[in-house]
Amino acid sequence: MKNEWSDAQSQTPASAVRFPSVSDSIDPAGGYKRRDFLKIVGATTGAATLIGVGITIKPEEASAFAYEPYLGDDQLTTVVTSCAHNCGSRHVLVAHKKGDVIVRLSTDNGQYQAGGSYGKDTEAEPQLRACLRGRSYRARLYSPERLLYPMKRVGARGEHKFKRISWDQALSEIAAKMVQLKKDYGPTAILDQAYAGASYGVLHKSDQIEGLLARFLGMFGCRTNSWSVPSYQATTFSSRMTFGTIQDGNEDDTFAHSKLIIMWGWNPAYTFHGGNTFYYMRMAKQRGCKFVLIDPQYTDSAAVYDAWWIPIKPNTDAAMMAAMAHHIFSNNLHDQKFIDRFVLGMDAGTLPKEYAGKENFKDYILGKYDNTPKTPEWAEQICGVKAEDIRKLADMYAKTKPAALKASWAPGRASYGEQYNRMAAALQAMTGNIGVLGGCAEGVGKAWHSESVAYPYDENANLWWASIKSDRWAHCVLNYPNVKREEIGLWPREDHLDGQIPNIKSIFWQGSDWFNQLTNINKEIKAIEKLELVVCMDSTITPSGIWADYLLPIATHFERHDVALPWYKGHYYIHRPKVIEPLGESKTDFQVFTELCYRLEALDPSLKDLGKRYNPKADRSYFEDPDAVDEAYLQSWWEGSVQHHQHVTMSWDEFKKHGTYKFILKEPHVAFREQITKGKPFETASGKIEIFSTYLAGIKDWTRTQFGYEIPYIPKWVEPFESLNHPIAKQYPFHLISPHPRWRTHSIFNNIPWLRETYEQEVTINASDAQKLGIKTGDTVEVWNDRGKCVVPAYVTERLLPGVLVLFEGAWMDPDKNGVDRAGNPDFLTLDNPSPAGAFAYNNAMVQLKKSDLTHRPGWDELAVARSSVFRRDM
Question: Are residues 416 and 484 in the same domain?
Answer without folding.
Answer: no
